[in-house]
Amino acid sequence: VQLQASGGGLVQAGGSLRLSCAASGSAFSSYAMAWYRQAPGKQRELVASISSSSKTNYADSVKGRFTISRDNARNTGYLQMNSLNAEDTAVYFCNTIHERLGNSYWGRGTLVTVSS
Q1: Burial (CB count <10 Å: 0-12, 13-18, 19+), residue 94
Q2: Tens digit of pLDDT for each residue in 43-59?
Q3: Is residue 84 left, alpha or beta, with left meaning phi > 0 and alpha meaning psi from -120 to 50?
Q4: Interatomic CA distance for residues 13 and 84, integer angstroms
Q5: What beta strand segments (E) does the chain contain?
Q6: Which of 11, 31, 73, 104 has the most CB atoms in a 10 Å sphere around its CB?
């Protein structure tokens, strides 16, 4: 499985971005998917996750502002980010894990910069 994240960029505080994570290969629907981020000088942290049955989970810092979703027909996951602030500036990574086999894959990050 190869993952391609896209959609990052420069946005003003209060703005929105939508990240996409396109997965190659088959059986995408059997994978849970998550978005992580890593800000300069900080550890990578989980932002949001979505199971194969579309159960979602969010970090407290993004609840109510970010929405994770998936389109199994397109083998793609998304992260809609609204009301962005400077603390959201980071490289965002997508990750998938097969819920039965445990295989985990990472995509290259996409940089999100929020200007205040």
Answers
A1: buried
A2: 999 999 999 999 999 99
A3: beta
A4: 5
A5: 3-6, 9-12, 17-23, 31-38, 45-50, 56-58, 66-71, 76-81, 90-98, 104-106, 110-115
A6: 31
